[in-house]
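Hey team,

Filing this mostly as a record. A colleague (T.K.) asked me to run one chain through the structure pipeline before their review meeting, and I want the input and output archived in the tracker in case anyone asks later how it was produced. No errors, nothing strange. Just documentation.

Input sequence:
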Amino acid sequence: MNVDLVFKIAAFGIILSVMSQLLTRAGREDIATLTTLAGLAIVMLVVVGLLSDFFTSVRQMFNLY
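Output structure:
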């Protein structure tokens, strides 16, 4: 796994937390919650894609299927 990907996910998390704090301070708690949930969904999609690639490579390595 690339270290760059870990840094991208961390940077995305930092940006989302800053946006959430700004929206909360502006009195838009509902939008802040939706922003956080959308960011979590995006990161989870990236992680699921990486896990899919990992399991595919394990299958190919051990000649499964």
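Quick notes for T.K.: Residues 24 and 32 are 6 Å apart (CA to CA). DSSP finds two helices and no strands in the chain.
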